[in-house]
Amino acid sequence: SASADEEANLVVNEEIEMVVRTDAPAHVENLSTIYSGWVFRSDETQALQMDDFDNPGMIFVDQAAERWAEVEGKNGKSCASCHGDVEEGMKGVRAVYPKWVESAGEVRTLEMQINDCRTNAMDAEPWKYTSGSMTNMVALISVQSRGMPVNVAIDGPAEMMWEQGKELYYTRTGQLELSCANCHEDNYGNLIRADHLSQGQINGFPTYRLKNAKLNSVHARFKGCVRDTRAETFSPGSEDFVALELYVASRGNGLSVEGPSVRN
Amino acid sequence: MKRAILIAASLMAGVGLASAEVAPLNVVYDDAGAVAVSLSGAPGDAEMGRKVFSTKSEGNCVSCHAVTELVEDVPFHGEVGPVLDGVADRWNEAEIRGIVANAKKTYEGTIMPAFYKTTGYIRPGDAYTGKAAKTDPLPPLLTAQQIEDVVAYLMTLKEE
């Protein structure tokens, strides 16, 4: 059917039990229950995420797994040189990003951290923020946390960025004067034309979209949603979007890491 | 001399036509958000309005509102706003004009966009390009005549 089965449960590979609905964290003021975007998709789209053989996003994860061991840059190193097996080295990492990185004195997304490793640790070219190479690598790293609860820290030194992201979330931008909350908080579960609105959670990122047949990053999705308010968007990787990602990720604390998920 | 008078007369006529249209900044809303006079100075065309209502690049009202009468011609009606069947029984023409021109004057803080407004935006963009707006004020989402056409269409939605 075209509409979603909002009662369905997600178990991947008959093994990884995903939390797709749970109590909202206390810092999410206007929701009592949080839902994964998977809940709002059609039966057919939902099914594609239930087995890695059916999930088209896994092809891109495989590509990144090869890249993981590829030596690049002037220092003659690969990701594996420093981090070993990705299964070991990256377990649990996705679940806590974006996070405050003390040594850098800033909140970093996974993309920022990966490019820091590429430019500084490897002396290789950085990847473009929303490029295929980057998004595929983020997906490979996400897979190592699948089924673990999103657990992004919002206090301490991250708090200012979190507040900045929260403000952006509730700001009505563009000529349509719509905020993220107008669609994803006030109207989740409703149809907007043919689209079934979800809560706009990011626990499933990167997402494989049937629409463009590739993995899509968080900031690319944000950019699309802001553009659709007839606004001037922010750039992927900008401080505004990093803050927004921290805030939106924190709204999903308690949902399972699902990436790569499948969406329409 | 005769020619000069003719030109003056046609200029006057031009001015007369232009001033019949109410510019977005000059729209007069009453306390309840209603707008009494036609924005274009001309009557609306309900058939055109039906198209504006359901066309994505025009009003795209159907993305948020369902109308039973439209279902056969236009698939996928949204459910963010109320179903507009019988809307003309609930509101008069001036009230509907006010809601379409700037719904925020009728419903404070509503999610419904203002279709005849040109200033006061945060990060205004150039349509759906994601780039910065090229002009300030912006062109309104709908022209005065398109608003009148949509109003005329909504006035046909009666149940009683």
UniProtKB/TrEMBL annotation, chain A:
A Gene Ontology BP annotation from the UniProt entry: sulfur oxidation
GO cellular component: cytochrome complex; periplasmic space
Binding site for heme c 1: C79, C82, H83, C117
Cofactor(s) listed in the protein's UniProt record: heme c; heme
Ranges for domain Cytochrome c: 63-150, 164-257
E.C. code: 2.8.5.2
Any one GO molecular-function label of the UniProt entry: electron transfer activity
Cell location: Periplasm
Cofactor binding, note field: Binds 2 heme groups per subunit.
Residues that span the membrane, as ranges: none
Ligand binding (substrate): R221
Chain sites annotated for binding heme c 2: C180, C183, H184, C225
InterPro entries for this protein: Cyt_c-like_dom (IPR009056), Cyt_c-like_dom_sf (IPR036909), SoxA (IPR025710)
Keywords from the UniProt entry: Electron transport, Heme, Iron, Metal-binding, Periplasm, Signal, Transferase, Transport
Subunit structure: Heterodimer of SoxA and SoxX.
NCBIfam families registered for this protein in UniProt: thiosulf_SoxA
Protein name per the record: SoxAX cytochrome complex subunit A
Organism: Actibacterium atlanticum
TrEMBL record, chain B:
Position of the signal peptide: 1-20
Example of a GO MF term: heme binding
Phylogenetic lineage: Bacteria, Pseudomonadati, Pseudomonadota, Alphaproteobacteria, Rhodobacterales
Residue ranges of domain Cytochrome c in the record: 44-158
Keyword Iron carried by entry: yes
Record-linked SUPFAM superfamilies: Cytochrome c
Species this chain originates from: Actibacterium atlanticum
Transmembrane segments annotated in the record for this chain: none
Record protein name field: Cytochrome c SoxX
Keyword Cell wall biogenesis/degradation attributed: no
Highest taxon of the lineage: Bacteria
Keywords: Heme, Iron, Metal-binding, Signal
